[in-house]
Each structure stands twice: as C-alpha cells, then as structure tokens.
Amino acid sequence: MRPLLNILSTDAVDDDRQKQKEIIGILDRSVNRLEAVSNRYLSGLESSESPERAVRLEVTDLWMILEETAQFHGESFRQYNQTLTLSSQVDDPVLVADPLAIEEIFSSLFSNCQKYAGTGADVSVSLTERGKRSLEVTVSDNGAGINAPKLRKIRTSMRLLGESLDASEHLGLQICARLVALHGGRISISSHEGKGTTIGFTLPKG
Length: 206
What we know:
The protein has helices at 2-8, 11-14, 17-40, 62-72, 74-79, 99-116, 148-159, 171-182; strands spanning 58-61, 83-88, 94-97, 122-130, 134-141, 186-192, 196-204. The chain is α+β, with helices and mostly antiparallel strands. Strands 2-4-5-7-6 form a 5-stranded mixed β-sheet. It has a two-stranded antiparallel ribbon with strand order 1-3. Strand 6 (186-192) and strand 7 form a beta hairpin. Helix 4 (62-72) crosses helix 6 and helix 7 packs parallel to helix 8.
C-alpha cells in the first residue's frame, strides 16, 4: 500500500479527484480485507478455537480471483516499473476454497514482489494442474533475490505456519503459509541473490 500512499502525496493526484477516489477505494478495500483475514484466521493464534473452523469453503474460480487481484494491484506494479504476466494451462481452474483467503494469498505475494524484487523487475504468475486433484500457482520474479541465510530464516518462519508470527520477517509470507495450510495445500520458496525469487503453492481441488 505504500506506493499508493506516495501517489496520493503528489501534485498530479491533487489535481485529479477521480484518481484520488480510485486510490482511496483501493486502500479501503485493502484495509477491509486485512481486517477480515486477521479476524477470521489469525485471531486463532490467541484463542482455543481451531482456525480450521474459520475457513468458509465454496466453489471458487482461482483464475478469476487471480485476474481481479492482479488488476487491483496494477497501479502499485506500475509505480515500481514492474511488469506482471499471467498465464494458465488449466482448462477448468475451479476448486473448493475460501475466496477471501485466496485473494489475500495473491495480494500478499504481489506486495512481496513489489517490496523486495526491486524496481523494473518482471513478475510472472502461472497456473497449472498438479495431477488430477490439485492446482499449482507459481509466482516468479527476476529481481534482487534473497541471500542464503535470510532464505533459511524465511523458510523456518513459513514452516511454523504462523503459529508465532514475526512482523519483522516477511509477515505476508507467513500469513500465506498459514492460509495455504488451512486449505490442505503446500507452499515453497526458492531464491538466488541477484537472480530472483520463486514462490509456489498447491491447493487441492476439493
């Protein structure tokens, strides 16, 4: 959300009321989504209620949510001079999932690319089938990458599945890992410093 806040502070936007309304609408939607995700999934960290009960499953078009979230983040990608490419090799990208959680996963991964890949990076998202029972999403960039010690730390925090969230260390990835796990899926990350990062996750169809 930071690049959108930066846009709001520019003179060009001061003179464009419609642009202001669009950006404020994006920020408002982001805040509402984060609040809903926090209340539904992350509050279970401090309560005895099982977070699995919070998952509200329904028939969900994964590709449609991906496209909508990509469009939602379009202005942020442009601010970082990054390109975003979507591709799918799946004829029927429908699964049983919680659409709010899926949107948050995509949104967190896009924000992660914008923040860490660096200006001018190319970001690609591909959707493929993993056997007959799962769909796989891969988000890759050719940006700054992550050094080995930090990558090990991130992997450790993701394996904890958010049981003890660390706001100082890629909180968005920790939340993604938790949401993917609640759907019975798996998530992984690979990276090479100076070459880019790839994050992949699978979700069962139902």
